[in-house]
Amino acid sequence: MDRRIQKTRTLIMNTFIDLLSEKAFEKITINDIAQRANINRGTVYLHYVDKLDLLDKCIETYVELLLSHCANRADTNLDARAFQSVFEYLEKNFTIYKLLLSNEGFGFFRSRLYAIIAQTVTEVIGIKSENNAFSNGITTHFLTSGFIGVLEWWINNSMPCNVQEITEQLMFLLKPYTKHLVSI
Predict the structure, then answer these.
(1) Residues whose CB falls within 8 Å of the CB of residue 107, separated by 6 or more in sequence, listed in order
(2) Which of 8, 13, 22, 132 is most buried, most CB within 10 Å of its CB?
(3) Span 59-178: which CATH code?
(4) How far is CA 69 from CA 1, 64, 66, 84, in A?
(5) What residues contact residue 27 under an 8 Å CB cut-off, 6+ apart?
(6) How far apart are CA 71 and CA 57, in angstroms?
(7) C-beta separation of 148 from 125 below 8 A
(8) Confidence at 182, pLDDT banded by 50, 70, 90
(9) What are phi and psi of 32, to 5 degrees?
(10) Domain with CATH 1.10.10.60 in the chain
(11) Distance in angstroms (rounded) separating the CA atoms of residues 15 and 39
């Protein structure tokens, strides 16, 4: 992609995020974005269909960034290192993920994150499961819901404990339910 196009899209998205931190999504207009970014309205429309498209692309971008951070890990175990890596990344990028998780209208972000984590958990369970008594669907939903719940609590409460503490607590809570997986 042309660097100028990428630079303009980044400017629009960053401006949009800044505006989201100041006011509700419904109150943001394309004019607001264009004025703040010091570009023409037409330029915004050249890159995004409307503000819903911009929101969707924003969510996709930040889910992909989280995923790419996690994908840089060589293993696929549900272990303390994996969880710690996620929480460290979220800690470094706290502001944007708090905004995306706490805004009432952004169930899209949570849904997309849930789907991706569930897919990863399903893959790990399919590869590592030693016990056929466990339903992969139930196990996937339970582990994914628990992880997302803890992640939301931690972000929405402004990280009330450090990365090490949240990781240790999460591993303690998950241990009885994940012992049928290898390398936990």
Answers:
(1) none
(2) 13
(3) 1.10.357.10
(4) 22, 8, 5, 12
(5) none
(6) 20
(7) no
(8) very low
(9) -60, -45
(10) 1-48
(11) 11
User: Can you tell me the distance from the alpha carbon of 61 to that of 50, in angstroms, rounded to the nearest whole number?
Assistant: 17
C-alpha–C-alpha distance, residues 70 and 75, integer Å: 10
Amino acid identity, residue 175? K
Give the pLDDT band of residue 184 (cuts 50, 70, 90). very low
**Which tokens belong to 68?**
């790419």
Token pair, residue 69, equals 């951070």
Alpha-carbon distance of 93 to 47, in angstroms, equals 25
d(CA 106, CA 29): 17
Q: What is the pLDDT of residues 72-115, one digit of tens each?
A: 555 555 677 878 888 999 999 998 888 888 765 567 788 888 88
Domain with CATH 1.10.357.10 in the chain: 59-178
Compute the distance between CA of residue 22 and CA of residue 16 in angstroms, rounded to an integer: 10
Q: With left for phi above 0 and alpha for psi between -120 and 50, is residue 159 left, alpha or beta? A: left
Q: Identify the residue with better confidence: 110 or 184.
A: 110
pTM over 0.90: no
According to the CATH classification, is domain 1-48 in 1.10.10.60?
yes
